[in-house]
Specification:
Layout lengths: L7 H11 L13 E6 L3 H4 L14 H14 L2 E7 L3 E2 L2 E2 L2 H7 L2 H11 L19 E5 L12 H8 L3 E7 L1 H14 L3 E10 L3 H14 L2 E3 L1 H8 L5
Helix pairs in contact: 3-9, 7-8
Length: 230
C-alpha cells in the first residue's frame, strides 16, 4: 500500500483556507455512493497491459468499505474502462494514437475491449446484489459522453461520492475533479486508491484536498457513515 500521509505544509494551507481539515463530519448514507474505478483485470492482473501492481494491495480495503457502505444504506457503483476497436482505430483516437506506440496500442485496445476478460472485475473484488455496474470510455467517468454515471447519481439522489480504485492520479482524480465541478461532494479514499508510485499517489491526494474535495482513510469514512457501517 502507498504512504497516504498528506504533508504538513499542505495541511497548513488547507487549514488556513477553510479553517478545518475535513469538509465532511458525517455522511447521509442515502445520499452517498462508493464509486470504484477500474478495479478490473486489465489494471489489476499481473502482467496485464496497463497493470498497476499496487492495485492488488487495495482490494481488501475496497471490499471492506463497500460492505460498510451497503450496511449503512449507501450505494456501491463499480465503473470499468472499456474502449471499442473500430475499423482502422478506436473510439478514443486522441489517446491511443498520440500516447501509445503501435505495439502498446494493440495490447491495450485488446485488454480493454468489450469482449475480453480484461474488462471483467478482478476476481478478488466482491460485488453484491444491488450494486450498480457501469462502463466508461474516458479517464473521467463524469465527462460528457463517457458513461451514465451522472444520470444514475442524479436519479438516486446521491450527492456525495467516495472515490476508490486506480489510478489515483489518472481516472480517479479525473472523476473527482469533474464530480466537484458538477457540484457533487467528493472524498478520495486515501488507502483505497492506487497509482504507479507513492509520489504520484500523494500528489493526487494533495491536489484533491486543496481544491476538489476531502481525503480520508476507509476507517474515517466508515466512522462518519454511522454505527451500521462498522
Amino acid at each position: 500500500m502507498h504512504d497516504t500521509t498528506i504533508r504538513p505544509h499542505v495541511i497548513e494551507r488547507v487549514m488556513a483556507r477553510r479553517g478545518r481539515l475535513h469538509i465532511f463530519e458525517r455522511f447521509d448514507p442515502a445520499r452517498t455512493a462508493l464509486v470504484v474505478i477500474d478495479m478490473q483485470n486489465s489494471f489489476v492482473a499481473p502482467g496485464s497491459p496497463v497493470e498497476v501492481p499496487a492495485a492488488r494491495g487495495i482490494v481488501e480495503t475496497i471490499n471492506r468499505l463497500a460492505a460498510g457502505v451497503r450496511a449503512a444504506g449507501g450505494r456501491v457503483i463499480w465503473v470499468r474502462h472499456v474502449n471499442e476497436a473500430l475499423p482502422g482505430g478506436t473510439d478514443w483516437a486522441g489517446f491511443y494514437d498520440r500516447f501509445l506506440s503501435d505495439e502498446m496500442r494493440t495490447r491495450t485496445v485488446r485488454g480493454l475491449a468489450e469482449d475480453t476478460a480484461g474488462r471483467d472485475l478482478w476476481p478478488g473484488m466482491t460485488p453484491a446484489e444491488g450494486d450498480i455496474h457501469l462502463t466508461k470510455n474516458r479517464y473521467s467517468a463524469l465527462i460528457a459522453g463517457s458513461s451514465a454515471l451522472e444520470r444514475v447519481l442524479r436519479s438516486l439522489g446521491v450527492d456525495v461520492l467516495l472515490i476508490a480504485g486506480t489510478k489515483t492520479n489518472i481516472c480517479c482524480e479525473s472523476t473527482a475533479r469533474d464530480a466537484m465541478m458538477l457540484d457533487f461532494g467528493v472524498v478520495m479514499v486515501a488507502d483505497g486508491n492506487a497509482a504507479l508510485s507513492d509520489d504520484e499517489h500523494r500528489a493526487a491526494l494533495e491536489t484533491v484536498i486543496q481544491n476538489f474535495g476531502d481525503v480520508m482513510t476507509a476507517d474515517e469514512v466508515l466512522a462518519r457513515l454511522g454505527p451500521r457501517a462498522g
